Each structure stands twice: as structure tokens, then as C-alpha cells.
Amino acid sequence: MSRIGRLPIDIPAGVTVTVDGQAVAVKGPKGELSLTVARPIEVKVEEGQVMVSRPDDERESRSLHGLTRSLINNNIIGVTQGYSKGLEVVGTGYRVQQKGSSVEFALGFSHPVLVDPPAGITFTVEGNNKVTVSGIDKQAVGEAAANIRKIRKPEPYKGKGVRYAGEIVRRKAGKAGK
Question: Taking the model in full, what pTM does it have?
């Protein structure tokens, strides 16, 4: 049995989980998320807990068992607490500004880069070099943060660029002098 898949998921107060065939909807104080479960996996709600089970030990069933349980758990955490990811802008002259709900980056290009938040995602700017991406969908928060980082990845010689909060950039030695 999958060690993760067989664990029950406790449903906190204020959260409702409804299962309709292969569709699982999670509704909580921060919003509502839905998930379509892959075919062999079965989801049941009983006694304030969500149970995920698989019918057989086929390779596909085994691989989807723990994944499905984790996705449902992430949705429950998302509608109760939400997710956030921090980004730091490092470099001389590199900065970030809030423009309404969008964020404008000055990253050494000839033009400022304006990033609009996807649906369900909010950007908050602290100071002129920190951005926090937050929302209820873990996958959407991570993807939005990765797309911002992709604009100017941290380079290995001076470490300039957009990096995740707490990310360690491996530095290279430059050209040796005479």
C-alpha cells in the first residue's frame, strides 16, 4: 500500500468536501477548488475524513493513489490557509513596483516588464525588491512565481536576477586576472 495514499485526510471545521463520481469539490473560507480524480482511484467522505483507495495493485493505480491524496490535501490546505511564494529581486538598478493589481519589474532590459496576475492569484510588493505571490491553488501559485523568475533568472557570476526567497545561487569564479 502507498504510505501516503492510505492516510486519511481530516476535514477542518468550515470546510466541505463533496464527491460526485470522479469530481471532488472542496469549499472553505478562502474559496472553492475542484479536482477530477483519475479513473481507477476512488474517493469517499466518511466521519469527517476523506479516504482515498485503489481497487488493485496495478502500476498506474499505485502511482495515482498517493498523488490523488496529496492533491486533495493541498486543496483543503489552500481553502483554509492559502499558499504563498516569495521572490527577491537582486541586482544594481533592479527593482519592482506595484501598478494596481499588476507588478512592474525593472530588470536591466531597455523597457520595464509588466506582469499581470492570473485568475485567483495576487501579487504584493514589499519594499522595492520583494514580491509575494499568493493564492489558494498551490499549482497556480508555483507556476506564477516560476513565470516571474523566468523573466530574468539569477546568473552565476554576480547573482543578479529574480530568485525565490531563500534560494541559494551557486556562484562561479570569473576570469582570472593577470
Answer: 0.91
